[in-house]
Design a protein that fits this description.
By secondary structure, the protein is mainly β. The chain is built from one helix and six strands, in the order ββββαββ. It has one helix spanning 57-65; strands at residues 4-10, 15-18, 24-37, 43-55, 71-85, 88-102. The protein has a five-stranded mixed β-barrel. A hairpin with a 2-residue loop joins strand 5 (71-85) and strand 6. The longest helix has 9 residues, at 57-65.
């Protein structure tokens, strides 16, 4: 099963791209934090940054309402793509949004 749930802060205003076929896609980064104990028992915080893409009705919602620093809950799936750079294969993983809630 390919299922991702994230709750975090939007790191930048979503970039809206219109494709040749007229469809739009929203691309943005979401920052999440996790708490853990180090070897001495001290509480530490680690940040993770996730690349997200959204299609369809979510593009309009993100375009109108979403801004940097906003809290967002996202449900989606992990998608991995590749491209060639100087003959070398590069892989990129991102979360494709199926549902979101502005917190």
């Amino acid at each position: 099963m390919n299922h991702v749930n994230l709750i975090g802060k939007v790191c930048s205003t979503p970039k809206i791209v219109e494709l040749a076929n007229g469809r739009k896609i929203a691309q943005f980064t979401l920052s999440t934090k996790e708490m853990y104990l180090d070897s001495s028992g001290n509480t530490k915080t680690r940040s993770n940054w996730h690349q997200l893409t959204a299609w369809g009705r979510w593009v309009q919602i993100l375009e109108e309402l979403c801004h940097k620093g906003m809290d967002l809950a996202v449900e989606g799936k992990l998608v991995t793509k590749f491209y060639l750079k100087q003959g070398e294969r590069k892989f990129v993983s991102e979360v494709e949004v199926n549902d979101l809630i502005i917190l």
